[in-house]
Design goal:
This protein is an alpha+beta fold and 553 residues long. 66% of the residues lie in helices and 12% in strands. Strands 3, 4, 5, 6, 7, 8 and 9 form a 7-stranded mixed β-sheet that branches. It has a 4-stranded antiparallel β-sheet with strand order 2-10-1-11, with helices on one face. β3 and β4 form a beta hairpin.
Length: 553
C-alpha cells in the first residue's frame, strides 16, 4: 500500500516535473541571491578596509574655525587612545585644464604616511616644485607625467606657493574614493574634480605655522574592521577623550589668535606712530624752511629798499655834481674866452707898438737918406726907438704870459671837469645797472613770494591730508582692535571616518545591496509559493477521483 502510494506520488511529480523544477530553480535563485549579495557586501567592506589600512587612512580628523597650531597637535597626541597625530594643510582652489576649469583639493604628503595616496604610475613628489595628480586631471587636460600645472591664485587665502609644478605621478586619494575616477566610484559625490599632492616644502612659509587639519590614528585599531561595531566603539572612545580637550584648546587657540593679532596691531601702530612722527617732523622742517624763506625775502626786501633809497640819494648827488660840473665848465669856458680876448688885445697892442716903432724907424731912415741926420744920430734914434719898443712890449709880454698861465690853469680845470663828467657818466651807468639789479631782485622776491605762497598752500594741503590719513589710520587701528575683540571663539570639528564620503559610501552601498539581497529572496519565495499553490490546486483537480468525494460546502 505504502509502495503504491510512493509510486503514485512519484508518478504525479514526474507528470508535473516542470512545476516542481520551477519551484526548485526559484528557491535556488533566492538562496543564491542572498548568499551572493551578502558575500559581495562583505567583500566590499573588507576590500575597502584593506585599502584604508594599506594607505593608513585617518581614524579621526580635527578642523578648527581658527586653524590649528603645533601646540594643538602636541596636546592631541597625548590623549589616551591616540597612537599618532599629525598636522597638515589642504586648500581648495582651481586649475586650468585646457578649455576647462577644474576644482582641485591640494594636499600635503604625510611624512608619517597617514592618508598615503595610492601610486598608480610614476613617482610621488619629493621637491617643492613637484606634484602628483589624480587620473581625472590627466583625462580632462590631456596632460601627462612630466608636464607642468599651475594653481589659480586665491589671494590671501592661498596656502601653497603659486608656481609651476611638474607632474611626477598619478595617484588615487584614499579619502576620495567616490571621486569620478576613484576605485569604488559607485555613485557621484560633492568631491572636487581632482586632487593634487605636494610636499610640505610647497607650503607658503608665511602660513606654515597654522595647520588646516589634524589627522589622528587610533591606538589598537590595527586588525579591526573599520565597519565593525568594535571599531566604532574604539573610535567613539577616542572622540570622547578628545572632547575633554576641546574647550581648553579652543580657548588657547582663541587667545593665541587674539594675542598675535593684538601684537600685530601693536607693531603696526608703533610703525604708524613712527611714520606720524617722521611725517610731522618733515612737515615741521618744511614749515621752518618756508618761514626761513619769508625771513630771507623780508630781509632782502629791506636791503633792496635801502639800496633803492641809496640809489635815489646817489642820483641826487650825481645831479648836484652834474650841475656843479656844468657851472664849472661854463665858468672855465668864460675864462678861456676872456683869455682869448685878452690875448687878442695884447697882440693888437703889440702890433700897434711895432707899427709905431717901425714908422719911426722908417722916418729916421728917410731922414738919414735925405741927409737930415748923420749915421750916429740915426743909430741913436734906432736905439731909442728899440728901447721904447722894448719898454712898451715888456708889460704886454708879462700880460701875455699871465694869460698863457691862466689859460693853462683853465685848460687843466677843463680837463678835470671833463674827467668828472666821464666819471659822472660812468656813475650814471653804474646806477642804471644797480637799478636793474634792484628791479631784478624785486622780481625775484616777487617770484619767491609766489613760490613760498604756493609752497605754503601745498604744505597746508599736505598737512590736511596727513591729518586725514592719520585719523583714518588711527580709526583703522581702533576698528582692527574692535574686530579682534569680536573674533568668535575657535570651534573644533571632531570628525570620524563617518564624515568621509568615500568611507560612508562603501557602508551605504553595502547596506543597500544587503537590502536588495533580502528583497529578492522574498520575491522568489512568494513566486515559489504561488507556483506551489497553483500546482497543488491542479493536482487536486486531477487526482480528485483518488481523493474521494468532495466535501460539500
Amino acid at each position: 500500500m505504502a509502495h503504491a502510494f510512493r509510486k503514485d506520488i512519484w508518478r504525479t511529480i514526474v507528470q508535473s516535473r516542470k512545476r516542481f523544477i520551477s519551484i526548485l530553480v526559484i528557491c535556488v535563485l533566492g538562496v543564491t541571491m542572498v548568499t551572493g549579495l551578502r558575500a559581495s557586501c562583505f567583500d566590499l567592506r573588507n576590500s575597502a578596509d584593506v585599502f584604508f589600512d594599506s594607505q593608513q587612512l585617518y581614524d579621526v580628523s580635527i578642523q578648527s574655525t581658527l586653524g590649528l597650531s603645533a601646540d594643538d597637535v602636541e596636546a592631541v597626541s597625548k590623549i589616551d587612545g591616540v597612537q599618532q597625530a599629525e598636522g597638515t594643510w589642504t586648500e581648495d582652489t582651481y586649475t586650468d585644464a585646457g578649455s576647462s576649469r577644474l576644482s582641485v583639493e591640494v594636499k600635503v604628503l604625510s611624512k608619517s604616511g597617514i592618508n598615503e595616496p595610492y601610486l598608480v604610475s610614476g613617482e610621488l613628489p619629493t621637491t617643492s616644485n613637484e606634484i602628483a595628480v589624480t587620473q581625472n586631471y590627466l583625462d580632462v587636460s590631456g596632460a601627462s607625467i612630466g608636464d607642468t600645472v599651475t594653481l589659480e591664485d586665491n589671494g590671501s587665502d592661498a596656502l601653497f606657493k603659486r608656481t609651476e609644478y611638474t607632474i611626477t605621478g598619478t595617484v588615487i586619494d584614499p579619502t576620495e574614493l567616490t571621486n569620478p575616477t576613484g576605485p569604488i566610484a559607485i555613485r557621484a559625490s560633492a568631491s572636487p574634480d581632482c586632487c593634487f599632492f605636494v610636499t610640505a616644502d610647497a607650503v607658503d612659509p608665511e602660513v606654515a605655522d597654522t595647520f588646516t587639519t589634524i589627522y589622528i590614528k587610533a591606538a589598537n585599531a590595527d586588525g579591526i574592521s573599520s565597519y565593525s561595531d568594535q571599531y566604532t566603539s574604539l573610535i567613539n572612545t577616542v572622540v570622547d577623550n578628545l572632547e575633554t580637550l576641546r574647550t581648553e584648546r579652543e580657548q588657547a587657540r582663541t587667545d593665541e589668535i587674539k594675542q598675535d593679532a593684538q601684537a600685530t596691531i601693536d607693531e603696526q601702530e608703533a610703525e604708524a606712530q613712527d611714520g606720524f612722527a617722521e611725517a610731522e617732523s618733515q612737515l615741521a622742517d618744511a614749515q621752518a624752511q618756508i618761514d626761513d624763506g619769508w625771513e630771507e625775502l623780508n630781509a632782502s626786501k629791506s636791503q633792496l629798499a635801502e639800496g633803492r633809497q641809496q640809489l635815489a640819494n646817489g642820483e641826487a648827488e650825481l645831479e648836484a655834481q652834474a650841475q656843479q660840473l656844468k657851472e664849472g665848465r661854463a665858468q672855465i669856458e668864460e675864462g678861456l674866452n676872456q683869455v682869448t680876448e685878452g690875448r687878442t688885445q695884447i697882440e693888437s697892442g703889440i702890433q700897434q707898438i711895432n707899427a709905431a716903432c717901425d714908422a719911426q724907424i722908417e722916418d729916421a731912415q728917410a731922414a738919414l737918406d735925405q741927409g737930415l741926420i748923420d749915421e750916429s744920430a740915426y743909430q741913436a734914434m734906432l736905439q731909442a726907438i728899440e728901447q721904447e719898443r722894448a719898454n712898451q712890449l715888456a708889460p704886454l709880454d708879462e700880460q701875455l704870459k699871465t694869460l698863457e698861465a691862466t689859460e693853462q690853469q683853465l685848460s687843466t680845470q677843463l680837463s678835470q671837469i671833463t674827467e668828472g663828467e666821464t666819471a659822472l657818466a660812468s656813475a650814471r651807468q653804474q646806477f642804471e645797472a644797480s637799478k636793474q639789479e634792484i628791479t631784478s631782485g624785486e622780481q625775484q622776491i616777487a617770484a619767491g613770494e609766489k613760490e613760498l605762497q604756493a609752497g605754503q598752500t601745498e604744505l597746508d594741503t599736505q598737512r590736511q591730508e596727513y591729518e586725514k590719513t592719520k585719523a583714518n589710520a588711527l580709526q583703522q587701528i581702533a576698528d582692527a582692535r574692535a574686530e579682534v575683540d569680536d573674533i568668535e571663539a575657535a570651534q573644533w570639528y571632531i570628525q570620524t571616518r563617518d564624515s568621509n564620503a568615500g568611507y560612508t559610501s562603501v557602508e551605504s552601498d553595502a547596506s543597500s545591496i544587503e537590502a536588495i539581497g533580502l528583497v529578492f529572496p522574498v520575491v522568489f519565495i512568494i513566486v515559489a509559493v504561488l507556483i506551489a499553490l497553483t500546482t497543488i490546486t491542479r493536482m487536486v483537480e486531477e487526482e480528485r477521483s483518488l481523493i474521494g468525494t468532495a466535501i460539500p460546502y
